UniProtKB/TrEMBL annotation, chains A, B:
Pfam family, one: HTH_1
Keywords linked to the UniProt accession: DNA-binding, Transcription, Transcription regulation
Name this protein carries in UniProt: LysR family transcriptional regulator
Alphabetical list of Gene3D superfamilies matching this protein: Periplasmic binding protein-like II, Winged helix-like DNA-binding domain superfamily/Winged helix DNA-binding domain
Family affiliation: Belongs to the LysR transcriptional regulatory family.
Organism: Ruixingdingia sedimenti
Record domain HTH lysR-type: where: 13-62
PROSITE patterns given in the database record: HTH_LYSR
Amino acid sequence: MAGRTGLEMLDSFLVVAEELNFRRSAERLGLDQSALSRRIQKLEALLGFRLLERTTREVALTQAGRVFYQENAHLLTRYDASVAAARRVAEGKSGLVRIGYMAFAATELMPMAVARFRQSHPHIETELRYIRTQGQKIALANDEIDAGYMIGPFEHSEYHAVTLTDEPLYAVTPRAHPLLHRTAITPADIAGQDLILGDLREWGEYRWRLNDMFSAEGVALKVRVEASNTLALIGLVAAGLGITIYPESLIGALGRNVEARPIHHPAFRSRTVLVWKRTNRSPQVRAFVDTARSLPPR
Amino acid sequence: MAGRTGLEMLDSFLVVAEELNFRRSAERLGLDQSALSRRIQKLEALLGFRLLERTTREVALTQAGRVFYQENAHLLTRYDASVAAARRVAEGKSGLVRIGYMAFAATELMPMAVARFRQSHPHIETELRYIRTQGQKIALANDEIDAGYMIGPFEHSEYHAVTLTDEPLYAVTPRAHPLLHRTAITPADIAGQDLILGDLREWGEYRWRLNDMFSAEGVALKVRVEASNTLALIGLVAAGLGITIYPESLIGALGRNVEARPIHHPAFRSRTVLVWKRTNRSPQVRAFVDTARSLPPR
DNA sequence: GTTTATTGATGCGTGGATTGCATCATGCGG
DNA sequence: CCGCATGATGCAATCCACGCATCAATAAAC
């Protein structure tokens, strides 16, 4: 066991305490009898009390030696076990991946990746934390999560980022809404509509992105209601108070009280990127990222 | 803490894992930053995987490093505790004294010594084992007991032995026995009496001694009954089946159904000696022996 | 943008520590 | 009384861990 270097003195004593014979112990330890003799002497000098009574014919433990042996007999075993555990982690055979995700990844992207990952890497634990895009950046910086699903694009020299989806936005309306009659919805069509959006606290990044897109098209948003809860928001739409805008991957999860139509415009899309620190070279994270990016696009 | 020499590498890593800064850690460890840097490098090389991610501005634990730290964080604490425990034993401030005793020491000698010893050395445990004289010699040789009360005399170059008592033997009779009328009992008076003695297995050494004493006086013993139990033996005496012979210290514990008279003869005495190995230099044993021999003679 | 300070890593020379070999003193078994 | 085993020790060679000085990289200060 090469890994226990630094613990030779203790190891030596434990061996001698078992063998009660310096020569045999020295052989077992792979060194000269004299060296072993001096190691024990040094250990005793260091401790300040004798561990062994030696005569030329016999070696016996002192009472203190007995206590010292009993207390530390399993220390090396425990240490070796800790080395083995750490090595498994280092080799990616076990460990923990902490994943942050925001709402748009919650329905398909993250669950599918996690499901497949847990199947292909059953020894690696996954920890999921719902955090919005901005929070994930902080969490990543603080090493509170290992990887995060966030709204893209994201570029930073200290981070890796892969784009997992680039999906169209949909207008979500009550059933039988006038917009549904159009063959194609454009950003301009939204201009006249009452909007129901999440508030800034809840939507954060997404809300800013929407503002940017529409103002780039010269469209002013008419926000009728703000909600801080997704279910409530959908309920408000279904009740006819207005329409909202969601990316494609959420549409399937909306229920039957609302309808949805894609907005045809190259800029009106939402990217989801998976981000992790460049310095985080752990094979667990690498494996998770590989799994996540290899999922078939919808 | 000087006692943890030999564990510097582990200690160093634990400190760095807490400080996440080599210079501060080096200062805390009392060595140069470069030395610390190399220690960690060596530890990593030894383990075969990295424990820390370093940039010139920042140090972070790898996942394996986190595991390694958690597993070993308390290792040094435990080790230090074991050193302290062993040191207490080495200094005689705690520990265990295992004491063997035979019947003649069971009534006064051993209990008084143990009582006083436990009072004066409350941190030292005492373990009592009833073993007859011959068995104690074996137990001492095998380090199964630390000291033994046995029938003396005892002389051996590898052992210390102190004589604690040299007491007269008593003839123990039923109440109103003819012997009680004599002013002084001699060995010859026993000759005509029916005797009740312990069997060889139970009395062992004592039985041989009695045989020796009487045959030296030319007296043949007339053993009427053998018993293997002290209470039964006294019962048999009380019932009038014969008399027995006990040393003085047992007389007080005999009860009211029997009487006792000393045998007046210089050879008819019983010594009790306390014996321990010369190689056993533990301060606990030394302290117990000192207590035992300093008790006031009865 | 330039400077300054701080980070961890590294080249190097020194001194103490550790090693193996040979040998010693001691005690057991024949 | 003589081997044979034990653990301890003298000694020389070697190793290796240390501190000093310095480097490259980078963050902070101006």
